[in-house]
Design a protein that fits this description.
two-stranded antiparallel sheet; about 25% helix; globular
């Protein structure tokens, strides 16, 4: 509650005065008690002493009300935290918060598995194979996105994927894919109203060994001599924070550093068992870090 101070110099406790004209026969008027000074050290007038217990009761009552409010708010906060921390891994949040630049992704969930098939990182699945349909593990586009109809969750050819890399790298990468027993490639790409272009590719191999071989020996992901995307000359490792990490998966993220051309590119590899994901975002001027981290996080969770 806001108390507005009067403009005539009086205190809020003395902003109104009621006057009554006493008849001649009335008893002598009661003399008003002397004003109580707020200055430190001023003695409290004797006449004001009886009001102290009432004031104390009011203060104690206010303290009690505030204490009750704190308890209620604390209980609500604890309940919210418990609800968040108890969410199932099959119910992945969309992290849709517009205030810090995050995009409004739809609510996500892991696709069903064929009957009797284990998850990729469970006992009995030594090859760490994703038995769910690969394109069902692909991150959907966020709200407001314009989706590329040629890359909207369907299967794409190897050449489509290799077009992301420099021309002088494509032949070697294609041979490495042939040697790595690649099974499928699926992709989704979209453009946001602010001009940010995104693409997510999922490559499924016959086992985790083939997937890791392609990542480590062909792409050199995470190393100083890593294969760069087309048009990129200089990169720096990008730390996305511990919240992006998902058990049993590996993550390598880089950002194009200056000097770069009219747009900046960020990309990340996610190694999840037999599947390797590539998440790419670019934007004129600078590619924002927040939606990139959000996109990588969600795709990582879907694969883990």
């Amino acid at each position: 509650m806001t108390v507005t101070e009067p403009t005539d110099g009086t205190t809020p406790e003395a902003t109104a005065e009621v006057t009554a004209e006493a008849p001649a026969e009335a008893t002598p008027p009661v003399t008003a008690p002397p004003a109580v000074s707020d200055a430190p050290g001023d003695p409290l007038p004797q006449e004001a002493a009886p009001a102290a217990p009432a004031r104390s009761r009011r203060v104690l009552g206010a303290v009690a009300r505030w204490a009750a409010a704190v308890v209620v708010c604390g209980g609500l906060g604890a309940g919210t935290a418990a609800a968040i921390t108890s969410m199932e891994r099959t119910d992945v949040p969309g992290l849709a918060t517009a205030s810090d630049g995050r995009w409004a992704y739809p609510k996500l969930s892991l696709p069903p598995l064929p009957e009797g098939s284990p998850r990729p990182f469970t006992d009995g699945n030594e090859g760490e194979v994703h038995h769910a349909e690969l394109n069902k593990l692909l991150l959907p586009a966020p709200a407001g996105a314009t989706v590329d109809p040629e890359r909207d969750g369907g299967w794409v050819g190897v050449d489509q994927y290799l077009s992301l890399y420099a021309k002088d790298q494509r032949a070697d990468l294609k041979q490495a894919l042939d040697d790595s027993a690649l099974r499928h490639v699926t992709a989704r790409a979209w453009t946001m109203p602010d001009g940010t272009k995104s693409a997510v590719y999922l490559l499924r191999f016959k086992s985790v060994a083939f997937s890791e071989t392609f990542k480590d020996e062909a792409l050199n992901a995470g190393s100083a001599d890593a294969v760069l995307l087309d048009g990129v000359q200089y990169v720096e490792t990008e730390s996305l924070g511990d919240d992006v990490r998902v058990p049993d998966t590996a993550l390598y993220a880089v950002a194009e550093k200056k000097p770069y051309g009219p747009e900046q590119t960020r990309w990340a590899y996610i190694q999840a068992g037999d599947t390797l994901a590539l998440v790419v975002q670019s934007r004129k001027g600078e590619a924002a870090a927040v939606p990139f981290q959000q996109t990588v996080t969600l795709q990582n969770q879907l694969l883990g």
